[in-house]
Amino acid sequence: MKKILILIACVMVVMTAGAVGRRVVKPGIEVLRDGGFAQLQGKRVGLVTNPSGIDNNLKSTVDILNEAPGVQLVALFGPEHGVRGNAHAGDAVGDAVDPLTGIKMYSLFGKTHEPTAEMLKDIDVLVYDIQDVGCRSYTFYATMGVCMEACAKHGTEFMVLDRPNPLGGNKVEGNLVEDGYYSFVSKYPIPYIYGLTPGELATFLNEEGIIAERSKTGHGCKLTVIPMEGWTRRMKFRDTGMPWVLPSPQIPTPESAFFYPVSGILGELYIFNTGIGYTLPFQTFAASWINADSLAMKMNELNLPGMHFRPINYKPFFALSVAVDKSLQEVHGVQTYITDPDAANLCLTQFYFLQVIHEMYPQVELFEQNPKRYAMFDKVCGSKEIRERFIKRYRVEDIADYWNKDAEAFRERCKQYYLYPNHRMGMDKFKQQKPKKD
After folding, report:
1. How large is the average pLDDT for residues 248-263?
2. Which tens digit of pLDDT belongs to each residue from 327-363?
3. Given this model, what pLDDT does residue 424 score?
């Protein structure tokens, strides 16, 4: 028994050492700290963050900056779900005082999405540190953007403490948002999957004149990005060795970020259960009237690159909206498996599901069940064209070209704003070649 206990202890030590050894990436907050907080010395700081703003030892950026010598943390700003992550999706968040630090907390997901002049009057620099998921309909990047607009208006510096894009830095899918469809789930003219880190996206928005245009100032904000150390574009989040703190309740793991674009658009119709309210958020397509085995077979017959499906039957534990699963009945469908995230077209998977469902159940009026949801569906898609083209025949081939029409051009356009190379071996050379911006 003693030998067994010793063996178990040794294994745990090895596993722990291995976990520490795999931490190859430093987030921006650690780089800032390692540099003695030089860029914040003597300044009054506001911090936009949530529980995902941490260092590699799980210490909150709130506490790090509050304890930083020479730095005066004077205000906290919370996006959707709040600074401490204690609000549900879509819930308005009120202003309060942080019980741990006694610092005033302002909500950016309540009466206003943008910091006001009153909120910024005693702040020299507004710092942003939130783990994003790399998708346009996920609202944290929009919070970052409107904070940049506010800083441009009021002459406040803006700093991004950079973090990984969990999807990597090369994946781009979706059309650009079109006029008439901008909202907080489609805030800027970017694809649905945009392939940039928060720092790179901030640089893009600033340098391309988007912040200047939206803020109506004629100029961008004074932007500083504190880049990560060790991150490369081919890394998925698991490759970084960094700990994952769910940025919102339905993104419990790094892999959830890949499933979010697989079913998130479809979820806006309130017709199918996509695993929300069960243990597999964004990983299923299910309804009470579907034959799970037949659906799985037909989905796998499509041979979609990087995707596989298995039949699943389950009963959701809760519903996020009274419009969805009112009776929380048992549902049947498929669980999605991403076998090769680089090869998979994540976003179009949900439209292939709709195509197959229409073939199996042509009598079911899929989009007509909740026409009031058209507006949100179109905003998430960034255009009405996707819905209107698709419902004519329920064929993915009718929307694929339109959905993908802007992806490659956007990727090429953004390369000048890349802060990280594809390979670690090219890191030093890449940094040397990066042009300096004023």
Report:
1. 96
2. 689 999 999 999 999 999 999 999 999 999 999 999 9
3. 74
- Give the DSSP letter of residue 367: G
Q: What is the DSSP letter of 147?
A: H
Are 334 and 285 spatial neighbours (Cβ–Cβ below 8 Å)? Answer: yes
Dihedral pair phi/psi, residue 365, rounded to 5°: -85, 95
The pLDDT of residue 125 is above 70 = yes
Treating both helix axes as pointing N-terminal to C-terminal, what angle do 349-360 and 256-263 enclose, rounded to 10 degrees? 50
Lowest mean pLDDT among 73-77, 91-95, 272-276: 91-95
User: CB 2: neighbour CB atoms within 10 A?
Assistant: 6
Instruction: Evaluate whether 261 touches 346 at the Cβ level (below 8 Å).
Output: yes
Q: How far apart are CA 165 and CA 188, in angstroms?
A: 18
According to DSSP, residue 52 is labeled: T
pLDDT tens by residue, 273-292: 999 999 999 999 999 999 99
Torsion of CA 87, 376, 244, 166, to 10 degrees: -160
DSSP one-letter string for 195-247:
---HHHHHHHHHHTTHHHHHHTSSS---EEEE--BS--TT--HHHHT-----S
The pLDDT > 90 percentage for the chain reads 80
CA–CA dist 262, 269 (Å, integer): 14
Residues 6 or more apart whose CB falls under 8 angstroms from that of 278 comprise 284, 314, 315, 316, 317
- Find the radius of gyration of the CA atoms of the chain: 22
Contact 354, 369 (CB under 8 A): no
pLDDT tops 50 at residue 113? yes
Residues in CB range of 38: below 8 A, 6 or more apart: none
Evaluate the CA torsion angle 282, 283, 287, 290 in order and state its sign: positive
From first CA to last CA, the distance across the chain in angstroms is 66
